[in-house]
Amino acid sequence: MKQNWPKQIWIVRHGESAGNVARDAADLAGHARIDIAERDVDVALSALGQQQSDALAAWFRDLPLSEQPDVILASPYKRAVRTAETIAQQLSAAKGLPVIVDERLREKEFGVLDRLTRRGIEELHPDQAEFRRILGKFYHRPPAGESWCDVILRLRSMLDTISLHYADQRVLIVAHQVVVLCMRYIIENLSEEQILEIDRRGDVSNCGVTEYVASSGKEVGGGLVMTRYNFIAPLIEAGALVTAQKDANVAAR
Predict the structure, then answer these.
(1) pLDDT digits (tens, 9 = 90+) for 105-124
(2) Single pTM value for the model
(3) Number of neighbouring beta carbons within 10 Å of residue 187
């Protein structure tokens, strides 16, 4: 069956979150646990994260109307929804875009390793630290959590939905670092080693943009071509500090 791709897909990581800040503080202090009171789904943007979202929203707003998103999809996590809403509010009133929340875009689930630093995992769950070392992050699934493969499975379903409902439209997705990387794995037909090498080169920046366009010279459904990865020019131009911290559960990613 042919895949009828959108004209354009942007995949954006949310702005810096309070969880990113708490994770850095826990690592710096050598703590085993990250000091976050809320559920991961309820962790909000930091003040800087909101500034980054504002800068990215202004960049989308300044695109010609015909080149702006037609559809905005977001992870249900508060930090992603807020980033998406900030962009939606800045787009032309003529668009009137709602933010469509889809649970398949949620953050990778960390299970028993939730809120632990690398030190915490090694101290409290040494068996899981060893399993992860042996299996690698692509296949390791912590108890009650997900592997990268599990995330990829739900994202394949997500891309089928996008193909079915949003063919020939411009689609903006706001989600998380692992989601951005796993989307690349699927769309570009990468191998485990290829996507992990991309991951090793550096983290996806908060509000960094990855962009694909329908390939030219092919019939509809021929494929997508990446034109930008981790694009941060909108933040730099607006004077917003660029951050690329790992998500709160740094060792479990």
Answers:
(1) 999 999 999 999 989 999 99
(2) 0.91
(3) 19
